[in-house]
Amino acid sequence: MTLDQNYFDAVYTESADPFRLGDNWYEDRKYALTVAALPRARYRRALEPGCSIGILTEKLAARCDALVSTDIVASALASAQARVDSAQVRFVEWSLTQSWDAVAEGGTFDLIVLSEVGYYLDGNDLRAALDSAIAHLEPGGTLLAVHWRHPVADYPQSGDQVHGIIAAADGLVRMGGYVDEDVILEVFAASTDRPDSVARIEGLV
Ligand SMILES: C[S@@+](CC[C@H](N)C(=O)[O-])C[C@H]1O[C@@H](n2cnc3c(N)ncnc32)[C@H](O)[C@@H]1O
Asked: Do you know which PANTHER family this protein is assigned to (predicted)?
C-alpha cells in the first residue's frame, strides 16, 4: 500500500531533515551524479515530486528556467522554500498520486526527476503516476529516476522494483545510467526511437 501523508507528517515531526539529506557525503555525491547525468545543459520547465527540504531543488533550479517542486508535507515544503527563495521555483503541496492538473496547469515538462520518491508508491499507484508523467513529458523530454537500493521495511517497493516498473513503461527509451551497491540512477527519454546522444547533439560524432 502507498505510504500516505500521515506517515510522512510523523517522520518530519521527529526531525526537520529526517532523511539526513543535508549532512553527508553519500547524498552530496549522489546529487552530483544526478545533475551530471542530465543530458541537456538547460531545461525549460521541470517537475520535482517529493522535494523534501529542497537540497536537490537548489541544484535543479540552476539548470531550469522554471521548476515545480512538490511534497506532501507542509513543513518540508516550507524548509525548501526558505532554502530556495527564487521566483523560478513554484512549490506545491501535491502527491504523485493526485491529479497532475495542479502541477501541469495545462502545460508540459521537458524534465521530470523522481529522486527517492518512487518506492513510497505501490506498484499500481506508481504505474498510474508514470502514465501521467509520460503524458506530461514533451517529446524527447527527460525522465531521471534515482533510488536507494537497500531494503527498507516500511516501503512498499525497493528501488530496483521501481526502476523495473519504469523500464517497462511504454513511451520511454533508456538513455543511460549508473548503478552501485547503494543507488540506481537511470535516464530515460520520452520517445519511441532512441534520441541522439549528447555527443551527437554537440556534433562530436
Ligand atoms: C527521501 S525524501 C527525497 C527528497 C528529494 N527528492 C531528494 O532526493 O533529495 C522523500 C520525500 O518525498 C515525499 N513524498 C512521499 N510520498 C510522496 C508522494 N506520493 N508524492 C510526493 N512526495 C512524496 C516525502 O514527504 C519526502 O519529503
From this structure: METHYLTRANSFERASE (PTHR43464), UBIQUINONE BIOSYNTHESIS O-METHYLTRANSFERASE, MITOCHONDRIAL (PTHR43464:SF19)
